[in-house]
Amino acid sequence: MTRIASSLIATAFAWLALSATAAAEPRLKQVVEVDGAVVTLGDLFDGAGSYAPRSAMAAPPLGESLTLDLGTVYDIAHTQGLAWRPIAAFDRVVVKRAARNLPETDIMEALSAALREAGAGERFDIDISTRALDVLVPRGALVDMTVDDLHYDPETGGFDATLRVEPAGGKARNYVLAGRAHAMIEIPVLQSRLRSDDVIRPGDIGWETVRAERVGNDVITDERELIGKSPRRTVTPGRPIAADYVGEPIVVLKGASVTMRLITPRMELTAAGRALESGSVGEVIRIQNMDSRIVVEGTIDGPNIVSVRPGRLVTGLN
């Protein structure tokens, strides 16, 4: 073998040895995300080998991050005995603590169950006055959640309590909850707009759940008070209905031709008239006699039939 060939072979072996050493050297990660409270060397480096489980530092608080410069990383590696040189294509490392928000629905379910036990009833709407619903917990961790020290005022619906959140394997934290539980009731509403001469049927009625405190004493809460009635004013679909917004069906319309009746124990007289007002059975309206043009008052007996009271002068009766 010539001297030149021997030199080339030696150079190749040296290059291979250097490449193997570089390949075996730990490689620093630029972004690190951890679930637990401790950052290990394995979190910071790829290829840390048997050093991977060793603790490097405490993780940042849930949902937060911190930045390490290469000098700090070198000190950590050197302290733990990991052979690593601060040579990288970047000059800092970001360490993030993974977290998730505890679903607000879970919190509200736990609070609702506690309020029911305290006597708030079965149906209520909760207003939270404290912003304690932004609760962070470790990503993927099982969570034990309880509502403690609940104080509930049945007169006002006000309450305060402590929400205790304990992730599996983690430290429990307490959050203050305060607010008000509003009693809810169902009320009948119209599903579509009806005219004043329409009669409300069961199929016209729907139900809305509203806060009881917003339902006045005049609001209808029983569908039986609507069925068979007619709107007397404009009723907005889906909105509470006041009792004076509905009444008996209109059976005489203003301007309609009506039969006027005068009934006594000895006779019954009729005449043609014109209604000057609309009305339902039992209501008193004004009618104009078509022959004499005299205006009288009469009680509605049925569709376009009006009884005139005895003793009142009505001309044109037959």
- The total of beta strands comes to 23
Largest sheet: 5 strands, antiparallel
Instruction: Specify the overall morphology.
Output: rod-shaped
Integer tally of domains? 3
Q: State the secondary-structure class.
A: alpha+beta
Low-confidence stretches: 7-23
How helix-rich are the residues, as a percent range?
A: 10-25%
Write up what this structure looks like.
With 318 residues, the chain is an alpha+beta fold. It folds into three domains: 3-97, no CATH class; 104-184, no CATH class; 251-308, SH3 type barrels (Roll), CATH 2.30.30. Helices cover 16% and strands 39% of the residues. It contains four helices and 23 strands. The protein has helices spanning 3-24, 41-44, 70-79, 104-117; strands at residues 27-28, 31-34, 38-40, 45-46, 55-58, 65-69, 92-97, 99-101, 124-128, 136-138, 143-152, 158-167, 173-190, 205-211, 230-231, 246-247, 250-252, 257-263, 268-275, 279-280, 284-289, 295-302, 305-308. Strand 21 (284-289) and strand 22 form a beta hairpin. The termini are far apart.
